[in-house]
Specification:
heterotrimer, A alpha/beta (392), B little secondary structure (102), C alpha/beta (192), A: 392 residues, alpha/beta, Rossmann fold, 2 domains, 12 helices, B: little secondary structure, Alpha-Beta Plaits, elongated
Chain lengths: 392, 102, 192
């Protein structure tokens, strides 16, 4: 039995960091993730962890610090949001391609402009091709649980990992949470014992090599394999986590999907709101369900295709727009996943929703299901590129 | 799976290449023959050489070995790229650059 | 108590409405409830109207939206009554608690026809008298607990005492002042 607490999402992540006691944190503050390094630096100052806290002058430097530390053989962490994540982008690629399993907590926030500090997923979606593993949390509990599992996953496949939650909506909201005892956390996460590291005097090494065209593609193909392999690792680590806590996780979470005829796919805090919408519609006898994406990278294309194969209509919900003139990133990947897995039956539409902190209500999700019901009945899809609750 | 630089040849597969193209040993440049980049070759006239050793420290490729007796030896043509700096600094005209014949 | 109680806090930046909502979440958590306490964030400025929310329930609520149909509304600053539609969506079975020295009947005309219970508490006066400064948080918190019954009163008093003892370990006189303010507020809140 764990420890009952009530914490905000940022507090929960900082607490997980404290329990793990990593070697190095390089961080620069930005709303709404600022509290994470703020709480953590207090732990450092109080001597509750022996982490080397490196206050840097930018997010680019924060990630560079993590890269150096992780390459040296340390466990390195950081936290950021929004433009801070953008500013890290160059180094995110380096971390992934140098195969350094850094852990980055992200409290997701919109990007300018117009300037906005509230939640959407455009920051993480903007760096989705950097080669990082990406987990999303619906609740504070999931942000904490994902963080405890993150290092095991990243270190097993040699890739860095982002642990994402919705800025303000969970990062600054107090909720009940069940914490794991610190000794259990330490036993679960374990010590970091990299095979190769810069501070190993018996094996001098170079990190960050130049690769000519003869080598570059082989290196990238191997990196791609690590992402493919991560699917199995995420499931295995989740299984062990469930044995410890009783809380179960997968690549996706299916809610009332068994006989669902209409379904939505989404990730983050709005999945909880959508569950309430599904519950209310089920009470009215409607066969609706939802799929929550926990692992955005690797993308659970096969699992989503399997879950959707019998539905009549679905909507992918994106808290970001790709500005490609036809759909957001989740819808693009869901549709590709269906096609690749030979699922051609369901009619699909994409919704852009919740941008810049636009509140997502139970009623908002019910509107989406009303549209899906219509599509399922008539077979007429209509516009597939839609904005939810935008004033016309 | 080998992690040695010598096995990272142009036919290494994606499964066998080192993660991130990282290199897990020191001094691997010793295996790379840069001597075949040379178009001009330094040749020393031992009669003119006074062993002043001005040439050895300026060689960018450490291709002028100095022995335990404090005297320079023959050029290391495996690494020497033929840049000609040694020829330029020699106060006695002991080093001449000649066209490389391969 | 209903399975789920939803509360709106209206205050001005710097008055501690957000802190009060978090304290209420704490108190409810300590009596075994599921809680959510969250502010509506924007470009905060001292004095600008702000809103904070509480969901308090017997089962975990998965909803992560703002609250549109609150059961209770707490107004930490009386001047907000003319600036913000504080009773919007407010459950007529619930109540509004306003920090004011006035009688509930005097304020009802400002509440756009709200038919439910209107309560007032002179949090500023109680705070000045018991703490020597205007800290309306503790009195407002006590008043909403009294009016809503969202936390059992005795458990609430016990829990707050423990929390003050922890928070003000080095200033015992502050603990007593806060406890007096808390109990007075529960007694002096006027229902109309």
């Amino acid at each position: 039995m764990g420890i009952r607490e009530r914490l905000s999402g940022n507090e929960a992540v900082a607490y997980a960091m404290k329990q793990i006691n990593p070697d190095v944190m390089g961080a620069f503050p930005i709303t709404p993730s600022t509290e994470i390094p703020q709480y953590f630096s207090a732990y450092v100052d109080n001597g509750e962890v022996d982490t080397e806290f490196i206050a840097v002058e930018s997010e680019h430097s924060a990630m560079s610090t993590c890269i150096g530390a992780e390459a040296a053989g340390c466990r390195a962490i950081s936290a950021t949001s929004s433009c801070g994540l953008c500013y890290m982008t160059e180094m995110l690629y380096v971390a992934a391609s140098d195969r350094l399993p850094i852990t980055l907590a992200v409290s997701c926030r919109a990007l300018s402009g117009p300037i906005n500090i509230n939640n959407d997923h455009s920051d993480v979606m903007g760096v989705r091709d950097t080669g990082w593993l990406v987990l999303f949390a619906e609740t504070n509990q999931e942000a904490y649980d994902n963080y405890l599992q993150a290092m095991r996953i990243g270190e097993a496949v040699g890739l860095p990992i982002m642990v994402c939650q919705d800025g303000f909506i969970t990062s600054h909201a107090i909720e009940n949470i069940e914490l794991v005892e610190t000794e259990k956390v330490k036993a679960f996460v374990g010590e970091y014992k990299p095979q190769h590291y810069l501070l190993n005097k018996d094996e001098p090494m170079s990190v960050g090599a130049y690769a000519t065209p003869v080598y570059y593609m082989e290196a990238k193909r191997q990196q791609a394999q690590a992402m493919i392999d991560a699917k199995g690792v995420i499931k295995q680590v989740a299984k062990e986590f469930e044995e410890m806590t009783g809380r179960s996780y997968g690549l996706i979470e299916k809610y009332m999907m068994d006989d669902a005829e209409e379904a939505i796919i989404l990730m983050g805090s709005s999945a909880g709101t959508a569950k309430e919408a599904v519950k209310q519609l089920r009470a009215q006898g409607k066969k609706v369900g939802l799929i929550k994406i926990r692992s955005f990278r690797p993308f659970p294309a096969e699992e989503i295709a399997e879950a959707l194969k019998n539905v009549k209509a679905f909507a992918s919900m994106d808290k970001d727009d790709s500005y490609n003139g036809h759909c957001g990133p989740i819808h693009a990947e869901v549709c590709t996943g269906l096609y690749a897995n030979g699922v051609f039956g369901p009619k699909g539409i994409g919704y852009i929703y919740g941008l810049g902190g636009r509140d997502v209500r139970v009623e908002s999700i019910q509107k989406v299901f009303a549209e899906l019901e219509q599509i399922a009945e008539t077979g007429q899809v209509g516009e597939t590129y839609r904005y939810l609750e935008v004033r016309e | 799976m080998s992690h040695l630089a010598k096995d990272m040849t142009p036919d290494v597969t994606w499964k066998d290449i080192t993660p991130g193209c990282n290199i897990f040993e020191g001094g691997t440049s010793a295996a790379v023959e840069t001597g075949d980049w040379r178009t001009m070759r330094p040749v020393i006239d031992w009669d003119k050489c006074r062993q002043c050793l001005l040439c050895a420290p300026v060689c960018p490729d450490l291709s002028i070995p100095v022995g335990p007796d404090g005297k320079r030896g023959e050029f290391n043509y495996f690494f020497c790229k033929g840049c000609g700096i040694c020829s330029n600094v020699c106060p006695f005209g002991a080093i001449t650059m000649v066209k490389e014949a391969k | 108590m209903k399975d789920i109680v939803e509360i709106h806090w209206h205050g001005r930046g710097g008055q501690g409405a957000k802190t009060a909502s978090l304290l209420l979440a704490d108190a409810a958590f300590n009596t075994g409830k599921y809680v959510q306490g969250f502010p509506e964030y924007g470009p905060e400025r001292m004095g600008a109207p702000i809103t904070a929310y509480n969901r308090i329930s017997t089962e975990r609520s998965t909803v992560h939206s703002n609250i549109y149909y609150p059961d209770y509304v707490v107004v930490v600053d009386e001047t907000l009554l003319s600036a913000v539609d504080v009773t919007a969506g407010l459950n007529p079975e619930g109540a509004i608690v306003i920090n004011s020295g006035k009688q509930p009947e005097e304020l009802r005309p400002l509440l756009k026809g709200y038919t439910g219970k209107v309560c007032t508490i002179d949090a500023g006066k109680i705070s000045e008298e018991e703490l020597g400064r205007n800290f309306p948080n503790t009195p407002m918190l006590a008043a909403i607990v009294k009016v809503s019954g969202v936390v059992e009163e005795k458990a609430f008093i016990k829990d707050m005492e423990a929390s003050f003892k922890h928070k003000f370990a080095s200033k015992p006189q502050v603990i007593e002042g806060n406890m007096r303010a808390l109990i007075r507020s529960m007694e002096e809140v006027k229902e109309g």
